[in-house]
């Protein structure tokens, strides 16, 4: 079995560790995924500092938050980056002129509607990332079509695929790539995948996407300390869009740390020093205020392929009985 996997990996490998692929795009989702930790209550200074750091680093995209309709989620319970109104974005980062950094926002099915997305020529936003579960594919395609017609780059981030059969994933991907979407994302929502599984899934995504001229991206979570390793695995196999967050800041166990990814990439256009400066000035103090990152509770939900919401609750309640928590997760699976 190991020998067979080695052959498959060799066949899929693109580039070498001494070279870089110019098609690689790095997308920072610190504010959007990090917003799930603190309900998007980031100070303007923090968001502006992320923005200027990414410009200095030559990162390709900044996902500045979500574009959720206020009727779907009460704005008294969330910060402004859960809604990403045009005036708020421009107030904090200006008009994003004379930079190569593109701005992205995420749309949630059932919480984001066509009327929330203005025409591209009226917006500072460049990319709409549509997140959906497999049963929401029809609604996602409708939103992607609308965003495309309005002039945006688009992605489809199909979530929780670790709960889906391969046949269902393939059928969903065929529907997605027949739309005008630009990038199809493989998402390890629960941080449950191992490298062998990621390699197999990447092959499936690439075969279906590339047949229609689409590219593939990867978004990982760090429940089992594998977000970075799995990101590199998909990169080696041929994904082109790579998500990461500064300090791994993100929901639950967090994401692939941007500093690890930049340290791995050989493209000389990316610079790590501005990132290190941001970490020492902003991430270190933030770690004293909010909790994210690897934890035994997140490890257990990852190993059992469960949503981390129960682990988040366990940690918020300062739980320490890991045996009882493990048994409760096993009961859910029975």
Q: What can you see in these coordinates?
A:
The structure is a single chain. This protein is α/β, with parallel strands linked by helices. It has two domains: 2-286, Alpha-Beta Barrel (TIM Barrel); 296-333, no CATH class. It has helices at residues 2-12, 30-38, 44-57, 86-93, 137-149, 166-177, 195-210, 227-237, 258-264, 273-286, 296-303, 309-316, 322-333; strands spanning 25-28, 61-66, 102-108, 127-132, 153-158, 183-188, 215-220, 241-244. α4 (86-93) links the parallel β2 (61-66) and β3. α7 (195-210) runs parallel beside α8 (227-237) and α11 (296-303) runs antiparallel to α12. Residues 1-7 have low confidence and may be disordered.
What is the multimeric organization of the chains shown? single chain
Average pLDDT, all residues: 94
Give the class-level CATH name of the largest domain. Alpha Beta
The fourth-level CATH homologous superfamily of the largest domain is Aldolase class I
Gap from first CA to last CA = 30 Å
Integer-rounded radius of gyration: 19 Å
Strand segment count: 8
Short description:
An eight-stranded parallel barrel has the order 1-2-3-4-5-6-7-8, surrounded by six helices. 43% of the residues lie in helices and 13% in strands.
Helix/strand layout:
Layout: H1 2-12, E1 25-28, H2 30-38, H3 44-57, E2 61-66, H4 86-93, E3 102-108, E4 127-132, H5 137-149, E5 153-158, H6 166-177, E6 183-188, H7 195-210, E7 215-220, H8 227-237, E8 241-244, H9 258-264, H10 273-286, H11 296-303, H12 309-316, H13 322-333
Parallel strand pairs: 1-2, 1-8, 2-3, 3-4, 4-5, 5-6, 6-7, 7-8
Helix pairs in contact: 3-10, 6-7, 7-8, 11-12, 11-13
């Amino acid at each position: 079995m190991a020998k067979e996997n080695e052959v498959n990996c060799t066949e899929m490998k693109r580039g070498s560790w001494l070279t870089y692929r110019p098609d690689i795009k790095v997308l920072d989702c610190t504010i959007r995924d990090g917003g799930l930790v603190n309900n998007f209550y980031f100070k303007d200074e923090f968001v502006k500092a992320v923005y200027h750091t990414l410009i200095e680093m030559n990162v390709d995209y900044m996902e500045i938050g979500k574009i959720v309709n206020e009727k779907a989620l009460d704005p008294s319970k969330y910060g402004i980056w859960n809604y990403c109104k045009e005036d708020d974005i421009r107030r904090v980062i200006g008009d994003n002129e004379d930079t190569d950094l593109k701005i992205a926002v995420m749309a949630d099915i059932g919480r984001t509607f066509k009327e929330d997305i203005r025409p591209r020529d009226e917006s500072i936003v460049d990319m709409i990332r549509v997140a959906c579960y497999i049963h929401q594919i029809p609604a996602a395609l409708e939103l992607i079509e609308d965003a495309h017609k309005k002039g945006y780059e688009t992605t489809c981030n199909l979530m929780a695929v670790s709960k889906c059969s391969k046949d269902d994933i393939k059928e969903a991907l065929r529907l997605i790539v027949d739309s005008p979407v630009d990038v199809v994302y493989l998402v390890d929502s629960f941080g449950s995948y191992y490298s062998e599984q990621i390699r197999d899934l990447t092959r499936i995504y690439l075969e279906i996407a590339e047949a229609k001229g689409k590219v593939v991206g990867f978004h990982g979570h760090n429940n089992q300390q594998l977000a970075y390793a799995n990101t590199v695995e998909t990169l080696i196999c041929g994904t082109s869009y790579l998500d990461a967050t500064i300090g791994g800041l993100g929901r639950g166990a967090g994401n692939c740390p941007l500093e690890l990814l930049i340290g791995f990439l050989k493209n000389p256009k990316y610079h790590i020093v501005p990132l290190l400066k941001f970490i020492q000035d902003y991430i270190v103090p933030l770690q004293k205020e909010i909790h994210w990152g690897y934890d035994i509770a997140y490890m257990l939900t990852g190993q059992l392929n469960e949503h981390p919401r129960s682990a988040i609750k366990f940690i918020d309640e300062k739980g320490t009985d890991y045996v009882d928590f493990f048994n409760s997760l096993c009961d859910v699976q029975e």
